[in-house]
Amino acid sequence: MASRQEQSRLQELSDFLRTRRNRITPEQVGLSRSERRRTPGLRRGEVAQLADVSVDLYTWLEQGRPIGVSTQVLERLALALRLNANEREHLFFLAHQQPPPVSMPVQETVSPILQHFLDRLDLSPAIAIGRRWDIVGWNEAACMTLYDFSQESMRGRNILWRMFTSAAHRELVVDWDRHARRILAQFRTTYGQFPGDPWMQELVHDLQARSSEFCLWWSDHEVLRGPEGKKIFNHPQVGHLTFEHLLFQIPEEPAVKVVVYTPLDGEETTAKIRHLLTAHRASSGR
Question: 83 with 138, same domain?
Fold first, then answer.
């Protein structure tokens, strides 16, 4: 016999599923409303159909029976019931007593507040990186010292893709081999957090076809957390730029990491960045 705590959990799960089902109208999911419908929202069978599970399984789950369900079933139920992120997490805690796997967003952006923060850094190049290692935000100094992100496709703004396929980036990064292997080990850690993610699998497949170094080093399964503290770039116009490298997360946007490059060698790198910005603003009439 289930314990009182277990009975309470199953009842909470039952009530949660029922209330989520009742708030969705047939019209919202493309079903017609019959005059004889007695439920305020969807029927159990309709939820089962939308989630591609058996009617018995969903019925038993909503009745609070002690049955096991897979992660895949819960994900399909979350979609069928149109759960938001908080509700999806609540469903997994009730059914599995643990949080759900982290879902990979289709595309990430930065908020106006975060973009304003990046812009205010001025002489410190700064970028915002999404879960897929795409650069989703940047400031003017980053465009002048690294490359013009605004002219790149989303794939072209992926850190790993650019590291292993761009001849210009290979020339920019001093000690490219060591730096590239470190980036790859850091990406491998992220890759392990999203097993089976089709987008990441496609990226790895394409890189294996494009880069012999990536193909060789990927098989080593090296993993690493945390950024390198010092970065040196060999800029084609002003020569070496030396930075400290700081990475942090913003609680309001946990999926996005911010990287700030602070000039390290006194005023030399700062003066070069100021020169690049001044020349760019003059050429663009700003």
Answer: no
